[in-house]
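The material for today's practical consists of a large collection of protein records. Getting from the letters to the tokens is the skill we practise here. To make this concrete, we reproduce a full record directly below:
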Amino acid sequence: MHVLYFHQYFNTPRGAGGIRSYEFARQLIARGHRVTMVCVIDDTDPLDLPGLPGDTVRRGVIDGIDVIQLRLTYSNFQSLPQRARIFFRYAARGIGLALKLDYDLVFATSTPLTAGLPGIFARTLRGKPFVFEVRDLWPELPKAMGVVKNPLVLAGMSALEWLSYRTASACIGLSPGIGEGIARRSRQSLPIAVIPNAADLDLFHPGQRKELRLPGIKPNDFVAVFTGAHGLANGLDAVLDAAAELKRRGRTDIVLALIGEGKQKPKLVERARCEGLDNCRFFGLMPKRELNDIISCADAGLMILANVPAFYYGTSPNKFFDYLSAGLPVINNYPGWLAEMIQAHHCGLAIPPGDAVALADALCQLADQPALRQEFGRNARRLAEAKFARAKMADKFVNWLEAVQQHRAPAGLQRFE
């Protein structure tokens, strides 16, 4: 089977972004299939494909994956209209490839929602099987966050969501809530699988505190890390609120390390400077292969999001699975399936959203109880190995695509186990 794979933000382990598509494509190849990946230039992973700087298209093979990279530079620092133009230009060029290339199945992963347009055209005009992977529920999420307010834009996004689900041969949701959201908006016979993000057990693994490689961190400091985007959705002011509370308590032994980039980062850095929050340390993007040196040697991982109900069951953050793999106790500040999992498997602390005192209390509890955080850490790694190993998730993914291509995928929502 030859899979034409659309992922606008494709990354490899050499870059700083998520590697779900890379690992799933590699598993397809290991199982005897071919993969052509279509992506854009991403400042987190330039991919280093052959060609000249001004080429509109670069193409080459990366670890067995045939990669087509379109010169459509995307950044989180762009305005919403700028990003929307990139989304539609990528979709338009993707449609051209879907109508021209020879392949057996189209797989497209959001976000953005427009990533599914090539699959819609391939299914409608060429009769190709089309599997649509949904990473966030649109337009529910941007509407709930207030990012998109124009009713005409929201109506257009809703129509595209409906068309994507109605056209697709099958769908994949990254969380139970996403799977249920797809089921509500699609035909009853649509096959839907829930395949969360995965734990990279070989890439991330428990380390030793003495090996921590962050400047300015003292050997006896308790270090809680946050890794990932510093955007509006992440609600990282909650971390700074907790940092202020820790300062009031005189807990200078607790350091909060925030690793990543995003539109909100300059504001967060400036706020920390103005309020004298020297217990907050900011670091830039790090390739996945280097990030383990930090995560595995920290003392806790922070799962922080803005208090938006659409997030509660509708997210599957890579950082959570990285923390589990590295054997870190997780502090989670919003309700939902991850909070329930943390509590059920005793691998961290779940606290109410928007409560700086509760977050500071959780940090102090783990800092003051090394035996508890070691127990949480062991349980975290066990959970990663038992339920979220990358090989297990990748096999489930390949099995699903094979079932769709062979017209034997079961109808309805197949819940994650």
Remarks:
- The CA atoms of residues 123 and 250 lie 61 Å apart.
